[in-house]
Design goal:
α3 (82-97) links the parallel β4 and β5. The chain has helices at residues 49-56, 60-64, 82-97, 142-154, and strands at residues 16-19, 24-26, 35-40, 67-73, 101-104, 121-126, 132-137. It is of the alpha/beta class. The mean pLDDT is 90.
């Protein structure tokens, strides 16, 4: 299968966001591994629950070669006094589910080159070079899920 790169220049596809685990995480840290990025509005996190469940059930050897990143649009909470409360709530969600969440306070992922819809659940796959090779918004249907896994296998 030939994978079309939506953005051919990996250097143009990067971000650095605050992590619920502390510190900042940059996408560039994961060059060399396929990356699955979920960017979701707080009320849309269950939209692609089926896809997330399948990812957690992958063969451990396959899962180990992937990087899965969860990021949330936090712009609505980027107000004086609101950030600490929102940060604590995101940390509680991350702890409850056992994964790190990246906090997008400025809408970095809603702007170029990602252009993700912050009101929806977004799923992105980046290849080992850091190029976006799959991007979808909303609830993924069976054909989109099949395309997602086809692209993922080819990366």
């Amino acid at each position: 299968m030939r994978i079309e790169r939506l953005f051919p220049e990996p250097s143009s596809v990067d971000f650095a966001l605050e992590s619920t685990a502390g510190g900042t995480r940059a996408l560039a840290e994961h060059r060399g591994a396929p990356v699955v990025l979920f960017y979701e509005a707080r009320d849309r996190t269950s939209d692609n629950a089926q896809l997330k469940q399948v990812l957690t059930q992958l063969d451990p050897a396959v899962r180990a070669r992937l990087v899965v990143i969860a990021a949330g649009d936090m712009r609505a909470f980027d107000l004086p006094g609101a950030r600490p409360v929102a940060r604590a709530a995101a940390r509680a969600v991350a702890a409850r589910h056992g994964f790190e969440i990246l906090l997008d306070w400025k809408g970095v992922l809603a702007g170029p080159p990602f252009d993700l819809d912050a009101r929806k659940s977004n799923v992105v796959v980046l290849d080992r070079r850091g190029s976006i090779v799959f991007r979808a918004s909303g609830v993924l249907g069976p054909s989109e899920i099949a395309r997602f896994f086809s692209v993922l296998r080819a990366t």
